[in-house]
């Protein structure tokens, strides 16, 4: 394991900050989505409904009020011994409409204070530039990332960030889980896709625009501060074949290719050999400018960040038809050898080792675990304690698997647990799907004091980090 290995945790602006229109911020996609009991799934996959409907309660509007409580929260993370803290910058807090001629100073000042507070405690900020957070105005005006003009707006945003925070932030991630654009286009690309359109054409064209933007952002960052480390990010988790039936094996190969496609471009500098076949089968005619291939080739990323919650399962054998698990946006077959959470995520610690070996073998650049954790319904006891032993067990098993991958020869920059403080779930809008070491007093209806309480896992992770850095 590296001597400079980073232990810490991760959050996202649109799931924790709240203050949704404060200090000049514009609307973000999360700001128009209700919680699951009021139709969040429908709104995510049919955002044209959410754009017109008033749901009454919107979880992101206040969230956990990190915008006003960040000093208190970072002090708690520092108490655990965090060496790194991943967060994102809200694009609409800097450019409320996405294409504004000048940035919003109040938004910039907030992140100045946030990063300064991280540095005060010796925490390395790991910053995602766009975490499912394309300004809603760009959706309304341009149709989101399906319009190539968003490259220019994104680079203008990046230039402001790199010049303002380039000496405070070393590690940057261009897009959160870039492959998720194929599963939730509204999250991944700020897009509303109409029924009569070819969704594959729109999504892959938008993804190409993001890939060019990511490469140009990498070039820009290096020109401003060569010490900046630029990363891409994958929603990872290898697809296993359901059986040794060759057809099941091939089904898993194809599913993994779909996952790797965009990271192949960002880490290797070109579309993979199988891309043309995939485009033909999906009736995709990708529009590229003459210079795009050279831009992609010359500006690959420094590291591969990824989230890991579970492996997936693929196959065509007739006996498994219909046996699916939700998998949180990525549909997968139900693996009979794995336990499963109430939200449909199958638990596979060894799969993290498998996934890390496959990614490192493929790309040969440092990996960075920037999301991993267990969403669960925690019980607040009468004495104020929260005994989340199940979370401790989950994390112990996954960290051990990560360490085994490192022993296998995988180069890994660090481990950042997801939702280190309870936050609003991106997929369901719930507060009661909790990931944190720190409990936030708020329920799914928005009721609560927002008081923070340390869970049993808080003390476990504090001791764990101390043991592992001594």
From TrEMBL:
Coiled-coil parts of chain: none
UniProt keywords, alphabetically: Glycosidase, Hydrolase
Keyword Glycoprotein assigned: no
Pfam families (UniProt xref): Glyco_hydro_1
Gene Ontology MF, one: 6-phospho-beta-glucosidase activity
Main EC class the enzyme belongs to: hydrolase
PROSITE patterns: GLYCOSYL_HYDROL_F1_1 (PS00572), GLYCOSYL_HYDROL_F1_2 (PS00653)
EC number in record: 3.2.1.86
UniProt xrefs under InterPro entries: GH, GH_1_N_CS, Glyco_hydro_1, Glyco_hydro_1_AS
Gene3D superfamilies associated with the record: Glycosidases
Active-site residues, as the UniProt record annotates them: 371 (nucleophile)
UniProt family annotation: Belongs to the glycosyl hydrolase 1 family.
UniProt name for this protein: 6-phospho-beta-glucosidase
Gene (name only): ascB
């Amino acid at each position: 394991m590296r001597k400079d290995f980073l232990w810490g945790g991760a959050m996202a602006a649109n799931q924790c900050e709240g203050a949704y229109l404060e200090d000049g911020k514009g609307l973000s996609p999360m700001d128009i989505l209700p919680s699951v009991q009021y139709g969040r799934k429908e709104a995510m996959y049919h955002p044209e409904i959410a754009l017109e409907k008033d749901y009454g309660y919107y979880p992101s509007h206040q969230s956990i009020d990190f915008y006003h409580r960040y000093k208190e929260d970072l002090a708690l993370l520092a108490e655990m011994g965090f060496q790194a803290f991943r967060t994102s910058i809200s694009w609409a807090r800097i450019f409320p409409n996405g294409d504004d001629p000048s940035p919003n100073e109040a938004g910039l000042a907030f992140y100045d204070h946030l990063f300064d507070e991280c540095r005060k405690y010796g925490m390395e900020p790991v910053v995602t530039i766009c975490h499912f957070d394309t300004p809603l105005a760009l959706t309304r005006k341009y149709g989101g990332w399906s319009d190539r003009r968003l490259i220019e707006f994104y680079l203008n945003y990046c230039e402001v960030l790199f010049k303002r925070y380039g000496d405070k932030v070393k590690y940057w991630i261009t897009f959160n889980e870039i492959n998720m654009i194929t599963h939730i286009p509204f999250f991944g690309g700020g897009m509303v896709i109409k029924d009569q359109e070819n969704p594959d054409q729109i999504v892959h064209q938008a993804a190409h625009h993001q890939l060019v933007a990511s490469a140009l952002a990498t070039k820009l960052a290096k020109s401003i501060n060569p010490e900046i480390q630029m990363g891409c990010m994958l929603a990872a988790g290898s697809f296993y074949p359901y059986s040794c039936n060759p057809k099941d094996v091939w089904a898993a190969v194809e599913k993994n290719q779909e996952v790797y496609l965009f990271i192949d471009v960002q880490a290797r500098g070109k579309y993979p050999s199988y891309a043309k076949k995939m485009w033909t089968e999906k009736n995709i005619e990708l529009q590229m400018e003459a210079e795009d291939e050279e831009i992609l080739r010359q500006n690959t990323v420094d590291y591969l960040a990824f989230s890991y919650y579970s492996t997936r399962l693929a196959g065509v054998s007739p006996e498994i038809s219909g046996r699916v698990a939700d998998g949180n946006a990525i549909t997968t077959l139900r693996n009979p050898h794995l336990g499963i959470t109430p939200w449909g995520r199958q638990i596979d610690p060894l799969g993290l080792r498998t996934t890390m070996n496959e990614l490192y073998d493929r790309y040969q650049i440092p990996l960075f675990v920037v999301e991993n954790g267990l969403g669960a319904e925690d019980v607040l006891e009468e004495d104020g304690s929260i005994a989340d032993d199940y979370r401790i067990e989950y994390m112990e098993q996954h960290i051990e698997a990560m360490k085994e991958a490192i022993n296998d020869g995988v180069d890994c920059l660090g481990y950042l647990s997801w939702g280190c403080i309870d936050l609003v779930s991106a997929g369901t809008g719930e507060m009661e799907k909790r990931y944190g070491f720190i409990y936030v007093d708020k329920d799914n209806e928005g009721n609560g004091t927002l008081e923070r309480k340390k869970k049993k896992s808080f003390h476990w992770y504090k001791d764990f980090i101390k043991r592992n850095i001594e």
